[in-house]
Amino acid sequence: MVVEQIKRVIVIVLDGVGVGEAPDASEYGDSGSNSVGNTARKLGGIALPNMEKLGFGNIIPIEGVAPTEESGVAWGKLTPKSAGKDSVTGHWELMGVHLEQAFPTYPHGFPDDIVQRVEQATGVTFIGNVVASGTVIIQELGAEHVRTGKPILYTSADSVFQIAAHEDVIPIDELYAICETARELLTGMHNVGRVIARPFVGSEADGFTRTENRHDYAVTPPTQSVLDSLLDADKAVVAIGKIKDLFGGRGISTHYHAKTNQDSLEQLEVALQEQSDGIIFANLVEFDQKYGHRNNYEGYANALADFDAYLPTLQAHMSDSDLMIISADHGVDPTTDSTDHSREYVPLLVYSPVLTQGVDLGTRESLADVGATIAALLDLPAPPIGTSFAEMLG
């Protein structure tokens, strides 16, 4: 039995890689969203030969990605159940934490009393306080920020309190300190999902560019997740990329820093050689951060191809006691007019050297089925939500 052999689970979250509108997409203004399917159609097809072998083309029709009849893989799709469509919500649900109420959002900017409270505590005065694209806002207000030294405050359709500052005007450590204070103050009805530091460089003459020194300050999960259960059982929880930030550091035993997809893949390869049990939990951020939010469907497709090309390297480091789960947290369709996250199903691909048959896992009722499966495989208490598909693997 596969269930009896697995000692280590590798979870890879392709941030923002959705596979079609969820049943309640219309409630979020996301009817017609299909991050992967629409991108492939826009380009006349995409080539993902290694993901194709894992059953990616079996989940939904994807131009250029054929269905497979290969044995030894399993595929399906996960339905988002928690309220909201942000990264925190999606990652938490994957690990068995369900939110009945979405994090607060601010379509008209933050209330004056909240802004003033943060300003008084940090000693700064903000400019902006608008809903904006991060790449656009620094072009519009970057020169004023450099001239006045006032950091830029902005938000989006997500539950985020974002502070942008030029690295030569407000040093990174100082920007981080401002964000840490804001995180402490944003509680109760204003308990935003994330406070995000957004450093940038450049000049008015040459344009401003965000750097890779972004840092997220997320709330911690309100209930125990599968990650906590792993630590309680003295099993390793290795976080790669922004996983640690998304869980507020809770339930993590080891963190590998990574800022790009390539960083995360390289660190994942290292972790596969250094960690022998428990879970390795990696986030690949650029589908969302670099391409989806900028409606760059060509870059989005290229990022998928880059991940696809790296897959055999990761598989080569897996043993018979390993199982890999590839999924996502939400969509961010780069082909629509919107630049926000989209309410979509997310893919479910499962691989292990010991799988002996092809398995259609179907349409799962929650992202939490991933956490429930990890719990079943690693002999942990079942989380309060989610249905394990471990027994379906043979």
Written overview of the protein:
Helix 2 crosses helix 13 and helix 6 (112-122) packs across helix 8. 33% of the residues lie in helices and 20% in strands. The chain is α/β, with parallel strands linked by helices. The chain contains 14 helices and 14 strands.
C-alpha end-to-end distance: 6 Å
Listing every helix as H and every strand as E from the N terminus to the C terminus, the arrangement reads: HEHHHEHHEHEEHEEEHEHEHEHHEEEH
Largest sheet: 8 strands, mixed
Subunit organisation of the chains: single chain
Strand percentage: 15-25%
Uncertain segments of ≥5 residues (pLDDT<50)? none
Overall helicity = 25-40%
Structural class: alpha/beta
The total strand number stands at 14
The dominant shape is: globular
Quick tags:
394 residues, alpha/beta, 8-stranded mixed β-sheet
Task: Give the SSE map.
Elements: H1 2-5, E1 8-14, H2 35-42, H3 49-53, H4 56-59, E2 73-78, H5 87-94, H6 112-122, E3 127-131, H7 134-148, E4 152-155, E5 160-166, H8 172-185, E6 194-203, E7 207-210, E8 215-218, H9 226-232, E9 237-240, H10 243-246, E10 254-256, H11 261-274, E11 278-284, H12 286-291, H13 297-316, E12 322-327, E13 346-351, E14 359-364, H14 369-377
